[in-house]
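Example S7 (structure tokens).
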């Protein structure tokens, strides 16, 4: 395809006239992926995947490599920006019923799972105290798998404890997975353009569409400008806002931090994990906290696609958002009352949203359908 033909296709790409700013987070995610790939490649050529040298190599990058501190902080802050955008992107999909484009939704959910895995492997690489102990806690969850748990954990570690082989494997996975994510993102975009995008009203917009450029491309550029401005503001004034102070100390297997917790974007799943006393039950709940999104296209029973005209569904949605924030907050606190009770209540409410979604749709149909 020639460049002129590609440009013409881009200009004439039909989109709904009423899609709002919430749709711009898709292009922002693409920008975040590009940023993470470029900065990650730069860091990889200076990083050493060895437990004795990994922490020192991060210090070397930030102190000795020209502009290394910018690249390192951009990569770290960019990961947080990535998850902020993706959580808003998912929330928009839930609110406006975008999950009814089943293939697009399932590919997006798969992307989320791979992004979370990539971020987890990357969090271990600095080999700081919190990196080491968070990896120890999370990988030990595999031991709860009946019969195969110990074997799977030993295989993942490459030995009988987290050591050099573990760090090497995590570095390799953290480097390789982004290329798979790029391929899956391309598939996600192709499926989106084949199936068409949803709109705030949830109606068929085939009769009322406009070219993507310039009507929506300018909105994309405006939102990207805001995101880049925010990113460099954080980089300039508070570059360590998302970092845990414990991670500025080299990993020491002999000293356990007082409160072990992962990065903030994993805290909702971690909060659900620790709210269940049973190890296997907590592990299953952790996995379900993300994979339950897959069920959304198959449990939608309402005649109306978008929540724009569904007041009860809107109430449930905002309860879910509040619950998500509360779980994240409670997971930063020690495992003691009242935080354990708050975590258990909000974890239950989180899953109730997905379990009651079909019932809510059925009730709305009964109310709105004339006898």
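Recovered sequence:
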């Amino acid at each position: 395809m020639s460049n002129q033909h590609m440009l013409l296709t881009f200009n004439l790409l039909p989109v709904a006239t009423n899609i709002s700013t919430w749709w711009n987070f898709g292009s922002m995610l693409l920008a975040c992926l590009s940023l993470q790939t470029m900065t990650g490649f730069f860091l990889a050529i200076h990083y050493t995947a060895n437990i004795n040298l990994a922490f020192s190599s991060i210090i070397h990058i930030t102190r000795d490599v020209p502009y290394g501190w910018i690249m390192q902080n951009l990569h770290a802050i960019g990961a947080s920006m990535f998850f902020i955008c993706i959580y808003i992107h998912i929330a928009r999909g839930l609110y406006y019923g975008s999950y009814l484009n089943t293939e697009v939704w399932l590919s997006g959910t798969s992307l989320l799972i791979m992004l979370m895995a990539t971020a987890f492997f990357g969090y271990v690489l600095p080999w700081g105290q919190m990196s080491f102990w968070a990896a120890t806690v999370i990988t030990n969850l595999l031991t709860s798998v009946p019969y195969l748990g110990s074997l799977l954990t030993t295989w993942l570690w490459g030995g009988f404890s987290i050591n050099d082989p573990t760090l090497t494997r995590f570095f390799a996975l953290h480097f390789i997975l982004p290329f798979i994510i790029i391929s899956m993102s391309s598939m996600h975009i192709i499926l989106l353009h084949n199936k068409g995008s949803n709109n705030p009203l949830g109606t068929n917009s085939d009769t009322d569409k406009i070219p993507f450029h310039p009507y929506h491309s300018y909105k994309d550029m405006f939102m990207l400008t805001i995101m880049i401005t925010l990113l460099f503001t954080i980089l300039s004034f508070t570059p360590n806002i998302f970092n845990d102070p414990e991670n500025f100390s080299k990993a020491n297997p002999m000293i356990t931090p007082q409160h072990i917790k992962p990065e903030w974007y994993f805290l909702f799943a971690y909060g659900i994990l620790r709210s269940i006393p049973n190890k296997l039950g907590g592990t299953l709940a952790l996995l379900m906290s993300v994979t339950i999104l897959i069920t959304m296209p198959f449990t939608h029973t309402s005649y109306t696609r978008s929540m724009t005209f569904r007041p009860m569904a809107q109430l449930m949605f905002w309860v879910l958002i509040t619950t998500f924030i509360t779980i994240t907050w409670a997971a930063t606190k020690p495992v003691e009352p009242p935080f354990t009770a708050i975590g258990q209540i909000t974890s239950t409410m989180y899953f109730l949203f997905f379990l009651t979604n079909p019932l809510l749709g059925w009730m709305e149909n009964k109310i709105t359908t004339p006898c």
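Notes on this example. Residues 11-256 form a domain with the Cytochrome Bc1 Complex; Chain C fold (CATH 1.20.810.10).
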